[in-house]
């Protein structure tokens, strides 16, 4: 039987739990760096043996990385999508999985946009997420949603501060989810 190391410093074996695979790559001085993204992607590739697979060996249970918003990257991407972003920290981004069916997708987009406007935020624009379909298994490809990013700003409501904006984004997300749960 495996025995955990002794408690020392910040490590305490009582907090150990089994999982499929988790890794952390951090920049402790809070500097944005593409190297962190590259290391995170490398880490995911090295955890491939820990992911769950079904009957289709090329379809896993999903994985990803969490990073800061890469403002300069999105400024350039959004310009090529036909809209401009405000300063860093003055907008929110929603990564949205939409239905494959074009009519249902359009309906969802309309509901999402109406909630954003109703909550007093600026709808800045949509961005299609680029996808390399060459690495997606047949089973996942058959059920893959349309993936888009929606950018929204805070300029339309009074007494702005970062906490209020983040709260408004959260409340808007919950309202959208409630409106679309049966779609």
Report on this structure.
This protein is α+β, with helices and mostly antiparallel strands and about 180 residues long. It folds into two domains: about 1-70, no CATH class; about 70-183, Alpha-Beta Plaits (2-Layer Sandwich). It is about 35% helix and about 15% strand. The protein is built from five helices and three strands. It has helices at about 35-45, 70-80, 100-120, 140-145, 160-180; strands at about 90-100, 120-130, 145-155. A three-stranded antiparallel β-sheet has the order 1-3-2, covered by helices on one side. Helix 3 runs antiparallel to helix 5 (about 160-180). The protein starts with about 35 loop residues before the first helix and ends with a helix.
Give the fraction of residues assigned to helices: 25-40%
**Domain tally:** 2
Strand order of the largest sheet: 1-3-2
Assembly level: single chain
Q: What is the end-to-end distance? A: 48 Å
Structural class assignment: alpha+beta
In short:
The chain has 183 residues and is an alpha+beta fold. It has helices at residues 34-46, 71-80, 102-118, 138-143, 162-180, and strands at residues 91-98, 122-128, 146-153. α3 runs antiparallel to α5.
């Amino acid at each position: 039987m495996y025995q955990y190391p002794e408690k020392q410093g910040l490590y305490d074996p009582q907090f150990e739990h089994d999982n499929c695979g988790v890794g952390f790559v951090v920049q402790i001085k809070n500097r944005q760096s593409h190297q962190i993204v590259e290391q995170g992607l490398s880490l995911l590739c090295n955890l491939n043996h820990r992911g769950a697979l079904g009957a289709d060996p090329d379809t896993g249970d999903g994985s990803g990385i969490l990073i800061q918003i890469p403002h300069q990257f999105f400024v350039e991407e959004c310009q090529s999508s036909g809209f401009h972003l405000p300063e860093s920290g003055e907008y929110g981004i929603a990564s949205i999985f939409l239905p494959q069916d074009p009519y249902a997708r359009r309906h969802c987009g309309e509901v999402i946009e109406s909630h954003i406007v109703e909550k007093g935020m600026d709808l800045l624009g949509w961005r299609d997420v680029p996808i390399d379909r060459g690495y997606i298994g047949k089973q996942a490809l058959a059920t893959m949603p349309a993936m888009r990013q929606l950018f929204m700003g805070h300029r339309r409501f009074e007494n702005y501060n970062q906490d209020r904006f983040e709260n408004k984004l959260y409340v808007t997300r919950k309202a959208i989810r409630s409106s679309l749960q049966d779609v």
